[in-house]
Amino acid sequence: MTAQGLNGFYGSVFKRSTAAFALIRTADGRILMMRSGNGGWELPGGVVKGGEDPRSAARRGAGEALGAGVDVGRVLVLDCVQGGDRQGGGQGDSIAFVFDGGTLATSVTGFSGAGGEREARFVALGEGTEVFAAATAGLLVAGMEALDLGTVMELIDGTPARGGHVLAPPPRRMMPQVDGFSGILGR
């Protein structure tokens, strides 16, 4: 094999990408979607950069859309995409996280940024879903279900994994309640 052949081989074998998105909603149930140029509509977020964790990447993506100070909450969706990346151009596996981006009180329906290069709009879940890529639609549906059920949805290639969702464990006390006992030292 030539050097380029080996680079191509190892590049395809070890290529992994991680993406992180934020599911940001309005009080009336619309969801923030973004696109660059004429690309497809996606949740705010994108590829996790080297040295960055998924939560920080989702926070960065939400901040690019809404400005500084945006935070994200718990993980809603974990999607393992086998044999292709989220953008559809690669051959490796990828993992996508969707975090709860919270709810905004706004009547704005759309806006643009980066000199008009990026566009954003708040979309009702059933409205215009034909413009979303299949992967984005799967993440949206799973994210909304995870919010409703208080769970984390596990997807494989955009469809629910066997078992579908993982219920959060109930909160536990380290020690059972004992009558007449208060505090660590019993005072």
In short:
This protein has 187 residues and is α+β, with helices and mostly antiparallel strands. It has a single domain, classed as Nucleoside Triphosphate Pyrophosphohydrolase (Alpha-Beta Complex), CATH 3.90.79. 21% of the residues lie in helices and 34% in strands.
Give your account of this protein's structure.
The chain has 187 residues and is of the alpha+beta class. It has a single domain, classed as Alpha-Beta Complex (Nucleoside Triphosphate Pyrophosphohydrolase). It is 21% helix and 34% strand. The chain is built from three helices and nine strands, in the order αβββαββββαββ. The protein has helices spanning 3-13, 54-66, 134-149; strands at 16-26, 31-36, 45-47, 75-81, 93-104, 110-113, 118-123, 151-156, 159-167. The protein has a six-stranded mixed β-sheet with strand order 3-1-5-4-8-9, with helices on both faces. A three-stranded antiparallel β-sheet has the order 2-7-6, with no helix packed on it. The termini are far apart. The model is unreliable at 85-90 (pLDDT under 50).
What pattern of helices and strands is seen along the backbone? HEEEHEEEEHEE
Number of structural domains: 1
Helix content, binned percent: 10-25%
Number of strands: 9
Widest sheet: strand ordering: 3-1-5-4-8-9
Major sheet details = 6 strands, mixed
The CATH class is identified as: Alpha Beta
* Number of helical stretches of at least 4 residues: 3
Mean pLDDT: 74
Q: What structural class do you assign from the helix and strand content?
A: alpha+beta
Instruction: Tell me which oligomeric state these chains represent.
Output: single chain
What is the molecular shape? globular
CATH architecture: Alpha-Beta Complex
GO molecular function, one term: hydrolase activity
Organism: Arthrobacter gengyunqii
Pfam families: NUDIX
Protein name: NUDIX hydrolase
